[in-house]
Amino acid sequence: MAARETKISVKGLAKAFGRNHVLRGLDIEVEAGTSVVVIGGSGTGKSVLIKSILGIVEPDAGQILIDGQDVLAASRRQAQALRGQIGMLFQGAALFDSLPVWENVAFGLMAKAKIPRDQARVRAVETLEAVGLGEPVADLFPAELSGGMQKRVGLARAIATRPAILFFDEPTTGLDPIMADVINDLIRSVVSDLGATALSITHDMASVRKIADRVAMLYEGRIIWEGPAKDIDASGNPFVDQFVHGRADGPIATIQAPQRRAG
Ligand SMILES: Nc1ncnc2c1ncn2[C@@H]1O[C@H](COP(=O)(O)OP(=O)(O)OP(=O)(O)O)[C@@H](O)[C@H]1O
C-alpha cells in the first residue's frame, strides 16, 4: 500500500504555565485519513495539545505542521486557512444556548463558508439527519435536548462544513454507556464518510477501542508510546498497560501517592 501523507505533524511541542511544565517536547504525527486517539491521565496536557493546534494556546517551543506548513511560523491569514480545515467537537458539546439547533449546526456554514441562511438551514437539517436527528429537532434550543442529543448536535456542527480534519475532545464524557457507544459509532462513520483525518483525546478506553486506528499515550509531557489500536492490550509498555487496565498500582504515579506529598 502506498504511504499516506502526513496531515498533522507536531514536533518538540513545549508549553509551561508558570512552573507547571505541561508539554515537554511532544512529538506526534497523524497520517491523512487515519484516526489517532491520544490517551493519558487527567491533567497530562491532552487539551493543551489540542488547544495549541487550534491556536487557543500559544506554545513556548516546537512546530505544528498542517499539510507540511508550520502554523506557528505562518502568517495570520495562512494559519487561519490551515486551521480552517479543522472541525471540532468540544467536550460538553459547547452549543450556543441562545441559538436554535439548526443555527448551531449552520454557524460555520454561514460564518466561515458564507453560505446564505436559507441554504445553510437545508444543509444543517441534512447534517442533523446524518447524525440521526430529524427535522423537528432543528428548531429546538439546546437546553431542550438530552446530553446525548446535544452531543449529536455538536457532532453535526463539527462536520457541517465537511472539514478535512476532525478533533474530538472527550466525546463520550457524561453519556451513559449505550449512548456513548452510539456516539462512538457515529464518530467512526462520519470520519470514514468524510475521509477525514481525526485526532481525539479521551480517557474512555471503550471509546479508544471504537474510534482509534492508532493510539498515542501522553505522559509527563511527551508521547511515551504510539502504535496501532489493536496492540494496546499487548503494548509491552507498563505505563500503557496500567492506563488501559485502569490499575492503581504501576509506574504511573498518582498525585495522592504519599511519597509525592511528603516534603
Ligand atoms: N490556561 C491555563 N493556565 C494555567 N494552567 C493551565 C491552563 N490550561 C491548562 N493548564 C494546566 O495544564 C495541565 C494540563 O491540562 P489539560 O487540560 O491539558 O489536561 P488534560 O490532559 O486535558 O486533562 P483532563 O483529562 O482532565 O481534561 C493542568 O495542570 C492544567 O492545570
UniProtKB/TrEMBL annotation:
One of its GO terms (molecular function) is ATP binding. The keyword Transport applies. Residues 8-244 form the ABC transporter domain. Keywords: ATP-binding, Nucleotide-binding, Transport. It comes from the Bacteria. Pfam families: ABC_tran. PROSITE patterns: ABC_TRANSPORTER_1, ABC_TRANSPORTER_2. Gene3D superfamilies: P-loop containing nucleotide triphosphate hydrolases. InterPro entries: AAA+_ATPase (IPR003593), ABC_transporter-like_ATP-bd (IPR003439), ABC_transporter-like_CS (IPR017871), P-loop_NTPase (IPR027417). This is Phospholipid/cholesterol/gamma-HCH transport system ATP-binding protein. It comes from Arboricoccus pini.
